[in-house]
Amino acid sequence: MRIEYDRDTCIGMFQCVAEWDAFERDEDAGKAVLTDSEEASEGTFVREVPEDAELDAKFAARACPVDAIAVYDDDGEQLV
């Protein structure tokens, strides 16, 4: 499972931070940061989700008010 985070879309409500500790606050930028991620394209960050964090990652994606977070299964199908 992997998660994609569009930092440009983020409005800094930090709901994802409350749901999964892989997201951290960047108070200076007013946006969240997806730790241990790689920039896949300008402003979009991707990382694998550990098996024990899959539920938290899904909750983080669902909690985002602007849909800046998407979760995909290993076949590339979007789950959230």
Structural account:
With 80 residues, the chain is an alpha+beta fold. The chain has a single domain (2-72), classed as 2-Layer Sandwich (Alpha-Beta Plaits). It is 19% helix and 32% strand. The chain has 2 helices and 6 strands. It has helices at 15-19, 54-63; strands at 2-6, 23-26, 31-34, 38-41, 44-48, 69-72. The strands form 2 sheets. A 4-stranded antiparallel sheet has the order 4-5-1-6, with helices on one face. It has a two-stranded antiparallel ribbon with strand order 2-3. A hairpin with a 2-residue loop joins β4 and β5 (44-48). The chain is globular, with a radius of gyration of 11 Å. The protein starts with a strand and ends in an 8-residue tail after the last strand.
Topology:
Elements: E1 2-6, H1 15-19, E2 23-26, E3 31-34, E4 38-41, E5 44-48, H2 54-63, E6 69-72
Antiparallel strand pairs: 1-5, 1-6, 2-3, 4-5
Features:
80 residues, alpha+beta, Alpha-Beta Plaits, 2 helices, 6 strands
* Count of separate DSSP helical elements: 2
Beta-strand content estimate: 25-35%
What fold name goes in the CATH topology slot?
Alpha-Beta Plaits
Structural class: alpha+beta
Give the gist of this structure.
By secondary structure, the chain is α+β, with helices and mostly antiparallel strands. The protein has helices at residues 15-19, 54-63; strands at 2-6, 23-26, 31-34, 38-41, 44-48, 69-72. The strands form two sheets. Strands 4-5-1-6 form a four-stranded antiparallel β-sheet, covered by helices on one side. Strands 2-3 form a two-stranded antiparallel ribbon.
